[in-house]
Amino acid sequence: MELIVWDGEARYGLPSMDLKSLQMMAYIKFSGAPVTIIKSSNPFRSPTGRLPVFKCTDGAFSDFNQVATFLRKQNFSCDYELSPKQCSEVVAYEQLLLEKLYPALVYLWWVEPKSYYDVIHKWYFSSMPFPHKLWYPRKYHQGYCDLINSMFDDPDDNQLVETELHKQAQECLTMLSNRLGDREYFFGRSPSTLDAVIFSYLALLLKVDLKVPVLQNHIKACPNLSRYVSKTIQRFFPSG
């Protein structure tokens, strides 16, 4: 089994600069599955033409849930100790994060001009091989701009869009902080699928120094979330 993911950035202490890559990497680490992880900045290394991609006897998957399902069939899971109620909570939280936190993340990375041009585009352009670097970042930028525009009746009102996205994300982060409390992980002392998902969002928002650090500052103001990210990286990704 092999997982090809977007490369990380040592300057930020991140094993990957991509949300889906981080989620798959975290799940594999948490479950103990014997998967070879290969870091790349070239999507054409993947048989699907995009990263991340998980290659196994059943084919090539780029969807987190497909990867988790396959590994569970091979008896590798980090959810064996969860009750049916907790498994339902995992699904509910995944959907909540997709609705409340994901739009803010992609906005801050790919749409907000200062962060996009000075941080994100610069990283992808310097990391990707020629000629892919000339069009891949712009393709992602345009796709995420279209996504954010589709969410609002007046997408040209940049202040309204940014304020609403930040508000929804900050409320979500506060709720996650309250839910985590003093626990090591969201369901106790062992990480689960939910931790793989949440950790990946928090790590990208906390570790990358964007030009608009509103969510980074919010996470820093929740000490338990900051500790959660740092301890997870130290335990499971000590060398990046």
Automatic annotation (TrEMBL):
PROSITE patterns: GST_CTER (PS50405). Keywords: Membrane, Mitochondrion, Mitochondrion outer membrane, Protein transport, Transport. GO terms for cellular component: SAM complex. CDD domains: GST_N_Metaxin1_like. Its main location: mitochondrion. Belongs to the metaxin family. This is GST C-terminal domain-containing protein. It comes from Scylla paramamosain.
